[in-house]
Amino acid sequence: MLPYKTKQFFFELIKLSIVIGAFYFIYQKLINNPELDFHDFIGFLSKKDILSLKSILSLLFLTFFNWFFEIIKWQTLVSPIKKISFKNAFEQSLGSLTASLFTPNRIGEYGAKAIYYTSNYRKRILLINLLGNILQMFTTTVFGVIGFCFFTAKHQVNIDYYKFAQYLLIGLLIIALIVFIVLKTKLTIKGYSLEKIKHFILGFPKKTMGFALFLSMLRYMIFSFQFYLLLQLFGTEISYFNAMTVITSMYLLASIIPSIFIFDVVIKGSVAIYLFGFIGFSEITILSTIAMMWLLNFVLPSMIGSYFVINFNLPKDPH
Q1: What is the dihedral of CA 145, 149, 155, 157, to 10 degrees?
Q2: 317 within a domain of the structure (yes/no)
């Protein structure tokens, strides 16, 4: 057994390493972005109206409410098993963002949120976090499918519908197979049977889930409008409806393309360039918009979250 002071030292070292890793990751993404040169990005911003006080306040206002609703959503989803304050939900949401920023598909968020709770809660917290992500993904899919239908109706998109139908059929068969295995087998994940997982999700309070879905939709409308506002600030001329057909399609396609979070900005940028190319928007405008969305909704909150990571203490298990 290691002495208490040695354990404490290593624990503090781990927290510091997470924060340094997050800041280094942000620095690398800004300076060594293969699609957008940092100096070109700064030069482009300085030529536009985006650096005015009114523009900055408008963008920060939308960022605030994006994360405000995410924090309320987390507080709501956790409430059936443990009541937490808004302050606790705020700390857990932003702290876990910082800790997971450089992990593939932000998978580290699951463990980061679970560690805020004593061991008897952690398995359920993992499932609740999964449920929250499913609700957000469901919102992205619904809005995305609607937007993509309008987009393809207006623009000549080269889609091989035969291949698309093949992939869709294969995907549905895989999902059906997974569902069948989950329902008919007694597999366990770290001691938590799939039967228990199914019962947990199906037995989750419907009102709570419904309200969390509503908050997911509010978040989606806020950050998609923020994307539209950035396009406007960069001097593009496009109606809100036409912009939303592209933005919703972009989020849908970017979310279903297999990726790791390290390349998430690049993938969103590539998809956005392709889709906005139908309207004739310049690459620098689209890439700068993507970069600003990342700075506002991930980098800024993760910098605040670094404070919570540094000051984090493990909860004590009840004896």
Answers
A1: 60
A2: no
Domain span at 187: 15-23+38-310
Note whether 233 and 256 are within 8 A (CB).
no
Of 10, 73, 309, residue with least CA distance to 208: 73
192's enclosing H/E stretch is strand 192-193
Q: Do the domain assignments include residue 245? A: yes
Number of domains in the chain: 1
Output 50 or 79, whichever has higher pLDDT. 79
d(CA 140, CA 251): 7
Find residue 193's DSSP bridge partners: 188
Q: Is residue 122 part of a domain?
A: yes
Tens digit of each residue's pLDDT (9 = 90 or more) over 52-90: 888 899 999 999 999 999 999 999 999 999 999 999 999
Tell me which long-range contacts 18-27 makes (C-beta under 8 A, separation of at least 24).
Answer: 18/98, 18/99, 18/309, 19/98, 19/306, 19/309, 19/310, 21/102, 22/98, 22/99, 22/101, 22/102, 22/302, 22/306, 23/306, 25/101, 25/102, 25/262, 26/101, 26/299, 26/302
The rounded distance, in Å, linking the Cα atoms of 295 and 58 is 15
Tell whether 8 is covered by a domain.
no
> If you write DSSP's letter for every residue of 202-236 in order, what string do you get?
HTS-HHHHHHHHHHHHHHHHHHHHHHHHHHHHTT-
**Residue 191 zone, left/alpha/beta (φ > 0; ψ -120 to 50; rest):** left
Which of 13-18's residues contact partners 24+ apart within 8 Å by CB, and which partners? 15/309, 15/310, 15/312, 16/310, 18/98, 18/99, 18/309
Q: How far from chain centre, in Å, is Cα 281?
A: 25
Buried b (16+ CB within 10 A) or exposed e, 208-229: bbebbbebbbbbbebbbbbbbb
298 vs 50, residue with greater confidence: 298
- Rounded to two decimals, what is the model's pTM? 0.85
Residue 247 C-beta-side C-alpha neighbours within 13 Å: 22
Helix (H) or strand (E) holding 188: strand 188-189
